[in-house]
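Table S2 (text version). Query chain:
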Amino acid sequence: LTVTLSWNVGLKRSKIRVGSEPIGPLAGTAKDPFNQDEPEVVMSRVLRHAGENSPVDGELWEFFKKHLHVDAKHAHNICSKMAPNEHMTTNTISFDLEGKHLVPKVYFYPIPISLLQENHAGEIITDVIGQLPLNLMPAFDYIRNFVYHYKHERNNQNILRLELIAFDAVRPTDARFKVYLRTKETCLARVEEVYTLGHTLKGSEIDAGVDLIRLFYLHVLGLSAPEEDLPRSMHRTAGIIFNMELKHNSTAPVPKVYIRVRHYGGTDLRIAQSLGSFFRAIGLRTLADTYVDAVQRAFPNQDFSNTIGRHSYVGLSYTKDGPYVTLYYNTMTFSAGNERDDSGKLVGPAAWKQRHLLD
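Corresponding structure-token output:
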């Protein structure tokens, strides 16, 4: 089980989210090549232990599993088409530590099914959204139309991609659906264009969100010129990510942008100090005064002046309550490999039989 932590902060409240990638004992083998078994175990437990008044519901999980999971028998076919170091897992699951009931947010990565069907992930996501027994299309059409025109104006099918879909595991008509897009273009002008879906999303909250992004670029990334790109990175996770939130009967999507500060922000100390300036600029004064010391205390064995990567992403959006900032942290906790139990028996990875993909 791999775990990531995130902290949502705003003017009125904050919350912690724990994200996980459940990994089963046969993940990566011929029996479970795309790690689909353990998420099924986790969701079964969550549904089984949901309290009487819990909003947790399994209908959407079953729907997306039916459409986006693949049978293990197709593994060789899929893997033969897969790019090196491609994301192999199908699901991640996160939980907000808020309220009485833990409601899972489930993420589906459609890479295996897209390779099996020889279709783009964006087309797979579009097709699945169209089959949901919900009214998501008025809001989703904003996204679909913008992505189509954005690609064709630049004559580049890979410049902006739909990569991922997520949902709250609650009653479908109450759920939030999030469609994630990635672009390698990093200048402020392109980020604003995608955030507003070509300026088709309008209103005071959208305008305030654009101002929030500009402040982040200035205070954290050190850029103010609209066409100036961030430093070039060839890493698979480089670029800018957006999610567009959809709900049943919503008339337009709600945007959020994620910036991979580990690639563009320098050391963790520099990022923490820059975030302090950013927090002050957006009115989070207490956080501005305390953030650098607080985040270093959270990682007491790390010298932030030398580390890169503890700060992973920063998410930015604007709601009716004001700026909404999400800080993602990479715990980078690894096994030494030779752990032993109380009797001295080797129990760490050194004791495991080594397996390889599709062995």
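Notes on Table S2: Residues 2-334 form one domain. The longest strand covers residues 2-10.
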